[in-house]
């Protein structure tokens, strides 16, 4: 079968790898370019479910190179909660044993390894047409691409999703994010408070006014999941160490999504002035090109739609805010189910049946993923009120100091 995938992102490339291995003909249309060497902007936490899928979809040597390019649970054992002065409020253990954190750049470069010939860059999809025998895609340059099935993996705001389901697939949330990347290691930069907070993994510092800062050190050079020197024939893609921060807060108090780098930097400096000096210092240490204002979206409940030869995966069907840290893992999970469904399929009736099965399976977990990803934002929203903030942080800090144990976290809904 000839399969067209729109979008060479996380889900699209993972699917392409699996479908090519299953013997299908695959063309990937990408509106931009494949990721080139260089820093990635941010790093992704992939859960064990996603890692199990990748172990199945990728050639063994490529999967080993992936492990050698990121860090495992050994360096990401806990999520530590702090107040804005970096005083500990508690922590939760990373329950997932086979988690991998990897830069988005290395992940995409490795997912494209060996299949770049199948990717057509600068081809932005506009619409699809379904006939009894095939399906074709028209791109904005006026060209068409024809195949037996189209997999829409073009992320949030997909034009093909709009045509298929009549909506853009995501409602904007009343919270936004500014994120950035600081090259180097916290301790080497003199950020001892942050280095301490990140000793066991990730950290979330909760501030006043409904703001919170997520912090994570990414250091695959010293803490890879697999020793890169014994990785095998495919070279690991190792990034230099960096610190990732993301300031979450009410949309109305953040700059607009079109704000430039200097505006973003000034805004974060202003908003974190009263925080711990290490945090207040971060904007000045941040690589300016990495500064991003991210609007947060969440998918409405995933609808059931009549199955056709056009299907969806990843953010194109169930976009989630990064607060759940699960959007990429879910795109890979979708890829696994879709590749399984299409393996061995050769004719149209069998194809539609297989796609229908995939869509049912994906819908069964998609809504829970979206709800779970919004929960931390709800929690933060409640802390906007100064009395609530003071009461919650004081109680949690006292409990933690007296017992060394965290109070239970808010429920996921
Ligand atoms: C700051 C941040 C941190 C995150 N952290 C995590 C994390 O720790 N763990 C996690 O699991 N997830 C995380 N996520 C979410 C994760 O990045 C996304 O959920 C994931 O990339 C979705 O994969 P996808 O394949 O659906 O789409 P994408 O990876 O976004 O890929 C879509 C691709 O389609 C292309 N495209 C778009 N429109 C068109 C078109 N019309 N025609 C052709 N091509 C098109 C795009 O250029 C892109 O290459 C984070 C996101 C952000 C912003």
Automatic annotation (TrEMBL):
<keyword id="KW-0560">Oxidoreductase</keyword>
<protein>
    <submittedName>
        <fullName>2-polyprenyl-6-methoxyphenol hydroxylase-like FAD-dependent oxidoreductase</fullName>
    </submittedName>
</protein>
<keyword id="KW-0285">Flavoprotein</keyword>
<dbReference type="InterPro" id="IPR036188">
    <property type="entry name" value="FAD/NAD-bd_sf"/>
</dbReference>
<keyword id="KW-0503">Monooxygenase</keyword>
<dbReference type="InterPro" id="IPR002938">
    <property type="entry name" value="FAD-bd"/>
</dbReference>
<feature type="domain" description="FAD-binding">
    <location>
        <begin position="308"/>
        <end position="371"/>
    </location>
</feature>
<keyword id="KW-0274">FAD</keyword>
<dbReference type="Pfam" id="PF01494">
    <property type="entry name" value="FAD_binding_3"/>
</dbReference>
<feature type="domain" description="FAD-binding">
    <location>
        <begin position="3"/>
        <end position="164"/>
    </location>
</feature>
<dbReference type="GO" id="GO:0004497">
    <property type="term" value="F:monooxygenase activity"/>
</dbReference>
<dbReference type="GO" id="GO:0071949">
    <property type="term" value="F:FAD binding"/>
</dbReference>
């Amino acid at each position: 079968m000839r399969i067209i995938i729109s979008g060479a992102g996380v889900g699209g490339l993972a699917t392409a790898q699996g479908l090519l291995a299953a013997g299908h003909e695959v063309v990937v249309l990408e509106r931009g370019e494949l990721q080139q060497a260089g820093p990635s902007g941010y790093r992704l936490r992939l859960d064990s479910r996603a890692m199990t899928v990748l172990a199945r979809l990728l050639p063994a040597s490529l999967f080993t190179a992936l492990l050698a390019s990121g860090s495992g649970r050994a360096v990401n054992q806990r999520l530590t909660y702090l107040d804005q002065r970096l005083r500990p409020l508690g922590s939760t253990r990373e329950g997932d044993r086979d988690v991998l954190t990897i830069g988005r750049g290395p992940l995409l470069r490795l997912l494209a390894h060996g299949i770049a010939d199948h990717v057509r860059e600068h081809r932005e999809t506009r619409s699809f047409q379904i006939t009894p025998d095939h399906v074709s895609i028209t791109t904005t340059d006026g060209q068409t691409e024809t195949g037996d099935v189209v997999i829409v993996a073009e992320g949030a705001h997909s034009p093909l999703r709009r045509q298929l389901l009549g909506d853009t697939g995501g409602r904007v949330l009343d919270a936004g994010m500014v994120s950035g990347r600081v090259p180097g290691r916290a301790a080497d930069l003199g950020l001892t408070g942050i280095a301490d907070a990140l000793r066991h993994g990730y950290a979330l510092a909760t501030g006043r006014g409904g703001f919170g800062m997520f912090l994570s050190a990414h250091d695959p050079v010293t803490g890879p999941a697999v020793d890169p020197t014994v990785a095998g024939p495919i070279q690991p893609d190792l990034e230099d160490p960096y610190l990732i921060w993301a300031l979450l807060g009410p949309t109305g108090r953040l700059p607009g999504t079109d704000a430039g780098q200097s505006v973003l930097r000034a805004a974060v400096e202003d908003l974190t002035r009263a925080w711990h000096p290490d945090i207040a210092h971060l904007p000045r240490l941040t690589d300016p090109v990495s500064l991003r204002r991210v609007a947060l979206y969440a998918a409405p409940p995933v609808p059931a739609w009549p199955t056709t030869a056009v299907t969806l995966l990843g953010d194109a069907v169930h976009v989630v805010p990064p607060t759940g840290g699960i959007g990429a893992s879910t795109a890979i999970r979708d890829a696994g189910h879709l590749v399984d469904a299409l393996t061995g399929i050769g004719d149209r009736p069998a194809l539609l049946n297989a796609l229908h099965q995939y869509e049912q399976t994906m819908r069964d977990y998609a809504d829970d993923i979206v709800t779970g990803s919004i929960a931390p934002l709800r929690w933060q929203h409640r802390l906007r009120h100064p009395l609530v903030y003071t009461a919650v942080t004081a109680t949690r800090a006292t409990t933690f100091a007296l017992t060394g144990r965290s109070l239970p976290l808010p429920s996921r809904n």
